[in-house]
Amino acid sequence: MSLNVPTMASMMAQGETPDVLFWVGCSGSFDDRAKKITKALVKILNNCNVKFAVLGTEESCTGDPAKRAGNEFTFQMQAMMNIQVLNGYEVKKIVTACPHCFNTLKNEYPELGGVYEVIHHTQLIQDLINTGKMSLKDGGIYKGKKITFHDPCYLGRANDVYEAPRELIEKLDAELVEMKRCKTNGLCCGAGGAQMFKEAEKGNKEINVERTEDALETNAEIIATGCPFCNTMMTDGVKNFNKENSIQVLDIAELIANAAEL
Amino acid sequence: MISSILFGLLFIGGFGFFTYNILKIRANVLLGRDVDRKGNRAERWKTMALVALGQKKMFSRPIPALLHLALYVAFIITQIELVEIIIDGFFNKHRFFHESLGGFYTFMISFIEILSVLALIATVIFLSRRNLLKLPRLNMKELAGWPKKDANLILIMEIVLVSCIFTMNGADEAAQLLKGNESYGFSISSAIGPLFFGEINSIETLHVIEHIGWWGHFFMVLLFLNYLPYSKHFHILLAFPNTYFSNLNKKGKLTNMESVTAEVKLMMDPAADPYAAPADASSEPQRFGAKDVTDLTWKNLLDSYTCTECGRCTSSCPANITGKKLSPRKIMMDTRDRLTEVGDNIRKHGKGFSDGKSLLGDYITEEEVWACTSCNACVQECPVNIDPLSIIIDLRRFLVMEESKMPTELTGMLTNIENNGAPWQFSPNDRLNWANED
């Protein structure tokens, strides 16, 4: 099935307005692993006939890593450019699969003139299932599997979203097992605050290895997460323990799309 | 008469010196930049009631929370007895509330005594956690020297204080029995009084012992009060204003730098005249980010005095857990120590004096600043809503925007964002390619 990915520009040309803008983000656009998450989400949106659009080449980095690295100039330049585009299209509602984009768009754009309703993709999928636009018969292929959820810091602590991803895992009829550090106590994967783009400072361990140990302790077959950076870090962590053949690291969108056989 | 005068002098001296120190700390805190924490008063009172008064966040670790609660409640309830001591002291009375309150008085003192015993138990456990069990969080290297002594001193003072209460009440109870009167019926001292002092057959001796307890208690209260401003233990007072002035936004939201907004708007406005004089010419351009404590906000500085060095932040910090140098607790301790130094310098040498030192560099190293993942675990954990992350971000802002000093990979990342609109080197034209790939 080919994906139907309308752009804002093409929709506007046809005089149509989407219900929601899908903010893909840099990882979702360029990173090979994260692109799969993007496509899984599009499959779900297509399947539920959600009227959405992407910015395509008009999208640019939200500026999150620049701001966290301390470069407010670069951040605000990016923010202002993006806000011009978003406001130009009169965007009201945004969904994104990246908690970093989510946080920045939701919390840091309003003061610069960009006021939108911003939701994380797990919240949108939760809504689609709860309103009956999508259903998982018998949970699908993940029925009975042990799944643990790694809380992305920028979704959990930063924005208090803990339940949407967990509720979705339960919809899979899977066994949700919590790590010893979870929800408000969740341990970071090590990528936030611009760490994704640099070597870690000298220490005695990599943060993603420490976090993967938490996940391995649960004996889960699948480590679920909701952030492309966390996905990279956890995947590397699993490889570090040579467990890549027995443990999968998947985004919630992928779990749902696979379970619904999209 | 003489004792009333002595009491009065000690009272005025003790509270006077305390006030002097409070004003000094207030002046230090106000050296910080302004930040608006005024609005939404209902929410602020609620936060203070839950977090400071109700100790909500302490209970994420139930056992220390219960022990701490015993100390906290005992501390607050004992203040009733302190009021009596002050009245007795000024007017040379003995148990002023006893007659007027009757049975309730016995209940009240009994309650205080039971809480004091619980507090004593908690204190002993706290001391052993620090010194015998050597809990890692309470024995990290940033606590070496004074901070460790400070913590133990406070706990020992607590033991002395409680001992004074029981000496006073116990000797009084023993004296009552010796006089052939009925016991007061205080829960603990009616039992331990006769046990410790039952052998003494002189009313005078018992009175002297009671007085030692009474004066000891009062003296310890004054000592404790005046020790607070020099100690990490200051949190017992500052927890309240500090939680009131909490950040009420989502933790993920970093502050917007308005000075930058003005410039960015100018850059993006095609009609702007780049050579025009600034609208507000009188204002001195502020430094971007923070190099020293005076570049931080007053709330950051209040945070630093509120920190009681419990280390919950550090024990939850992913960087610290994996052996990096960063410790959010050390960030707070460094900020407070540097602020005390800057404040003392200003009082000694006048405003504008520079000792050539700064928070960044002399106290906090760049290595610490760059190890942070901005995960907010430290902010989440702090039982009194201290925010070490905002200090770290402001130090980064100074390094990047004023000094262009950052790990080399970050220079590349920033260049990529500026040139390609992505932190990696991809062409912006390829942004939608995923839609047409299998």
Summarize the structure.
By secondary structure, chain A is of the alpha/beta class. Chain A contains eleven helices and eight strands. Chain B has 19 helices and no strands.
Keywords:
A: 262 residues, Rossmann fold, 4-stranded parallel β-sheet, 8 strands, 11% strand, globular, B: 438 residues, mainly alpha, Fumarate Reductase Iron-sulfur Protein, Chain B, domain 2
Mean pLDDT of chain A: 96
Rg value of chain A: 18 Å
Sheet with most strands: strand arrangement of chain A = 2-1-3-4
Question: Counting H and I runs of at least 4 residues, what is the number of helices of chain B?
Answer: 19
Class by helix and strand content of chain A? alpha/beta
Largest sheet features of chain A: 4 strands, parallel
The greatest interface here is: A-B, 72 and 69 residues
Shape of chain B: elongated
The helix tally of chain A amounts to 11
pLDDT below 50 for ≥5 consecutive residues: which ranges of chain A? none
Structure description:
- The complex is a heterodimer of chains A (about 260) and B (about 450).
- With about 260 residues, chain A is of the alpha/beta class.
- Chain A contains 11 helices and 8 strands.
- In chain A, the strands form 2 sheets. Chain A has a 4-stranded parallel β-sheet with strand order 2-1-3-4. In chain A, strands 6-5-7-8 form a 4-stranded parallel β-sheet, with helices on both faces.
- In chain A, helix 3 (about 30-45) packs across helix 11 (about 250-260), helix 7 packs across helix 8 (about 165-170) and helix 9 (about 205-215) crosses helix 10.
- Chain A starts with 7 loop residues before the first helix and ends with a helix.
- The model of chain A has no long low-confidence stretch (mean pLDDT about 95).
- Chain B is mainly α and about 450 residues long.
- Helix content of chain B is about 65%, strand content about 0%.
- Chain B starts with a helix and ends in an 18-residue tail after the last helix.
- The model of chain B has no long low-confidence stretch (mean pLDDT about 95).
- Chains A and B meet through helix 2, helix 3, helix 4, helix 5 and helix 6 of A and helix 10, helix 13, helix 17, helix 18 and helix 19 of B.
